[in-house]
Specification:
Distance between the termini: 62 Å
CATH class: Alpha Beta
Strand order of the largest sheet: 11-10-9-12-8-1-6-7-13
Number of helices: 7
Number of strands: 13
Number of domains: 1
CATH architecture: 3-Layer(aba) Sandwich
Oligomer: single chain
Structural class: alpha/beta
CATH superfamily: HUPs
Strand content: 25-35%
Length: 263
C-alpha cells in the first residue's frame, strides 16, 4: 500500500501565551514559537505505520508549513515514515483551510499514485476539522471521517468503525480514500534512538509553489475564501465574597446563595 499521512505542525501549546495576533490580518504571529506535531496527526501516522506493517508498502508524511517544520517531519521519519515532503513558500502564508487543502492536493498529485490518505480529525490550533474533507474533494476520492478503528482492508475495500452521535457505525469505502482519525484509534509508539539515527538517511523533500505549479493568487490571504473577522478575549467579571464561621455554616451559606442565584 502507498500511504500518505498529512500532518500540521502547530505552535507548542506551552507557548500559546506568548503568541500575538497581527492587528490587520488577525493571523497568528508564530515567529520564535516552536512547533509540534498535533496529537491526532501522530495517531494518523501511527495508524499508517501499522497498516504498512500489515500490508506492506510505504508511508510518506506531508505538511504545508514554514521551513522550520523540517524538525517536525524529522520526528515523523524517526517514528517510522519512509519519506517526508515539506510544502513551503511565503505565498502559502495566511492560507485558510481551502487554500491549505489545495496546496496539499497539488503535493499529493506530484507525489504519485496512492491507496490511502490519513489525517487527524482536526488540528491542534485551528481545530476546524475542514482540511481532511476538503482535501478529499480536491482529489475526488471518498472521505471517511471520525475513524476510531480500521477494521480491514481487502479487495480494494476499506472497512472502518466511525464515531457518530448515537454510538458507532461500520462503513465501507473503495480505495483510494481519505480517512480522518480520532484520538481513540491508537496510542502512538515511542520514538527510538535507532529511529532518530535512521531518519537522517531518509528522503526529506521540499517543494515550493513553483514546484507545485501553484499561482500565488490561489493561496495565502489572496486565495483564501474565508477571512477572520475579529478575535478577542471576552471580559470576565467575577465577584468574590469571603465566608467565615464553621465549615457546616459556610456550606449552608453557599447552598443558600446558589439557590438564590438560580431563582
Amino acid at each position: 500500500m502507498n500511504i500518505i499521512v498529512c500532518v500540521k505542525p502547530a505552535p507548542d501549546p506551552k507557548r500559546w501565551d506568548s503568541m500575538q495576533l497581527d492587528p490587520v490580518t488577525k493571523a497568528l504571529q508564530r515567529e520564535g514559537i516552536p512547533s509540534v506535531l498535533s496529537p491526532l496527526d501522530k495517531r494518523a501516522l501511527e495508524e499508517g505505520l501499522r497498516l504498512k506493517e500489515k500490508h506492506g508498502g510505504k508511508v510518506a508524511v506531508m505538511a504545508m508549513a514554514p521551513p522550520s517544520a523540517k524538525e517536525n517531519l524529522m520526528e515523523a521519519l524517526a517514528m517510522g515514515a519512509d519519506e517526508g515532503y515539506l510544502l513551503t513558500d511565503r505565498a502559502f502564508a495566511g492560507s485558510d483551510t481551502w487554500a491549505t487543502s489545495l496546496v496539499l492536493s497539488k503535493g499529493i498529485g506530484k507525489w504519485g499514485t496512492f491507496d490511502l490518505i490519513l489525517c487527524g480529525s482536526y488540528s491542534l490550533d485551528g481545530s476546524t476539522g475542514h482540511v481532511g474533507t476538503q482535501l478529499a474533494e480536491f482529489l475526488g476520492i471518498p472521505n471517511v471521517s471520525q475513524v476510531v478503528a480500521v477494521k480491514s482492508i481487502a479487495g480494494g475495500i476499506l472497512r472502518a468503525k466511525i464515531l457518530v452521535e448515537s454510538g458507532y457505525r461500520i462503513l465501507e469505502s473503495p480505495l483510494p480514500a481519505l480517512i480522518t482519525v480520532t484520538r481513540d484509534i491508537n496510542i502512538p509508539r515511542f520514538t527510538s534512538l535507532f529511529g532518530v539515527i535512521e531518519a537522517e538517511s531518509k528522503p526529506l523533500v521540499t517543494w515550493s509553489a513553483l514546484d507545485l505549479r501553484i499561482s500565488p493568487d490561489d493561496v495565502g490571504f489572496r486565495g483564501s475564501l474565508t477571512r477572520t473577522g475579529d478575535i478577542f478575549l471576552p471580559e470576565i467579571k467575577r465577584k468574590a465574597k469571603m465566608l467565615s464561621g464553621e465549615p457546616e455554616e459556610m456550606v449552608q451559606e453557599i447552598i443558600r446563595k446558589i439557590r438564590q442565584a438560580l431563582g
